[in-house]
Design a protein that fits this description.
This protein is mainly alpha-helical. It is built from 10 helices and no strands. Helix 1 crosses helix 10 and helix 5 packs antiparallel against helix 7.
């Protein structure tokens, strides 16, 4: 196996801090004479991806996981109506509704974990090779291609249930009715659950891509002596 591929494997094994233990298992593979077998490479990559997806899901599922840059605001088609509602005294209602959207996304995110686990266990040798020699988000791209539809299908009913439980659907219907009653507006027909499901999936894969890109390219993200040593050789090329 060529040295760049070994380095890439190390990067993937460090998708999260908890992946460092797996790096030590591969230290012998990085010696000048050792040539890792295909089974070892695939097993290491699967473990790295499992750790990385667990971290991404857990980060988003915690309270406040969908906040800041990850926050789910109203869809662009509703921004105009929301601004009008804020101006006529319903700003608190709009803010409350946006908060409920993000809480529902947090509650739904764990549903993605088992789907990622299945996709990772199904990696073929071609998949492994493509990820090892691929671009800065090759692992994330693989998971998106293999899992997006299933992840969306899994989070949607959880989001729908959460929005109903906390009264977000009722709040949305109330806001929609108030807006639709205004003169000379185009009535709003869409509901909130499909939109939150789409944005939740976007956040999950964006989190995975950010972790993967960082560990492949950023020296500060290399969290073990082994990683620092291996990438120092690559940085000098």
């Amino acid at each position: 196996m060529r040295r760049p591929a070994q380095i890439t494997l190390c990067a993937l094994l460090a998708l999260s801090a908890s992946g460092c233990a797996q790096l030590e298992q591969f230290s012998s593979l990085l010696s000048a004479d050792a040539i890792p077998g295909t089974d070892s490479i695939a097993a290491g990559l699967r473990e790295a991806l499992r750790k990385g997806t667990e971290k991404a899901v857990n980060d988003l599922a915690r309270p406040g996981g969908f906040s800041g840059s990850r926050s789910i605001g109203l869809p662009s088609s509703l921004q105009g109506p929301a601004d009008k509602l804020r101006k006529i005294g319903f700003a608190a209602h709009v803010d409350k509704f946006e908060g409920l959207l993000n809480t529902a996304a947090e509650k739904a995110t764990p549903a993605a974990a088992s789907i990622f686990a299945k996709a990772i266990s199904s990696l073929t040798l071609d998949d492994v090779n493509g990820i090892l020699h691929g671009g800065p988000t090759a692992a994330t791209d693989y998971l998106r291609k293999s899992s997006l539809a299933e992840v969306r299908a899994a989070v949607l009913p959880v989001i729908r249930s959460q929005l109903e439980q906390v009264g977000a659907v009722a709040d949305f219907n109330n806001l929609r009715a108030k807006y639709n009653a205004l003169p000379l507006v185009t009535p709003i027909k869409a509901g909130p659950d499909d939109y939150v499901a789409e944005r939740s999936c976007d956040a999950i894969f964006a989190s995975l891509a950010a972790m993967e890109t960082d560990i492949r390219s950023n020296p500060a993200a290399r969290t073990s002596e082994l990683l620092r040593k291996v990438f120092a050789m690559q940085d000098k090329k």
